[in-house]
Write a structure and sequence with these properties.
three-stranded antiparallel sheet; alpha+beta; GTP_CycHdrlase_I_CS; 7 helices; hydrolase; 2 domains; zinc; GTP cyclohydrolase 1
């Protein structure tokens, strides 16, 4: 039997108040001495409000799995999943890519859902270390695979555009669970396939 089983529905409970956000953005810009009364900047507060709302609001999705009827027991890996989030310390974006893999147990996952899980945890004020761990922990809890691996590589504009201004630097974080943590050969295979271990 190949029926799908939804594990959990992830829902957006409350939506953003764009009018309040636009007013706050207008006051914020004014406090920094930026006038928003010219033709080119008049809509800037509204654009800021919509932009941050998009960055900080996850889309709902249903986590659907399928029986592992064929007994597939090798690594499943989605590489180069786009990541965009906002640093919780400076509210500046960080962008990069995630590599998410798992060793199936009794169920396998629709591949697009790996990207959905990353997006879900990225759409909030974040730190990269927590984003990496939340993604891995959630997949382990919901899918109950034999192992999970998540690697995130990202450029943080709070570090590249301000402060030390380390342009081009990237931060790499990883979380390994189950077999991918305990077995060196499996961990090596996962890291080699992500391209992180060169």
């Amino acid at each position: 039997m190949t029926a799908t089983v939804p594990l959990q529905v992830v829902e957006d409970v409350t939506g953003p108040d764009l009018e309040a956000a636009e007013r706050a953005a207008r006051e914020f810009l004014a406090a920094l001495g930026i006038m928003v009364d010219s033709e080119g900047t008049r809509e800037t507060p509204a654009r800021m409000a919509r932009g941050y709302a998009e960055l900080l609001t996850a889309r709902p999705f249903q986590m659907t799995t399928f029986p592992n009827d064929e007994g597939y027991d090798e690594l499943v890996l989605a590489r180069d999943i786009p990541v965009r989030s906002v640093c919780q310390h400076h509210m500046l974006p960080f962008v990069g890519k995630a590599h998410v893999g798992y060793l199936p147990g009794t169920r396998i996952l629709g591949l697009s859902k790996l990207a959905r899980v990353v997006e879900h945890f990225a759409c909030r004020p974040q730190v990269q270390e927590r984003l990496t761990k939340q993604t891995a922990d959630w997949l382990a809890e919901q899918l109950q695979p034999r192992g999970v691996g998540v690697v995130v590589e990202a450029e943080h504009t709070c570090m590249t555009l301000r402060g030390v201004q380390a342009t081009g630097s990237r931060t790499v974080t990883s979380t390994m669970l189950g077999v991918l943590r305990d077995d060196a050969a499996s961990r090596h295979e996962f890291l080699a396939l992500t391209g992180v271990q060169r």
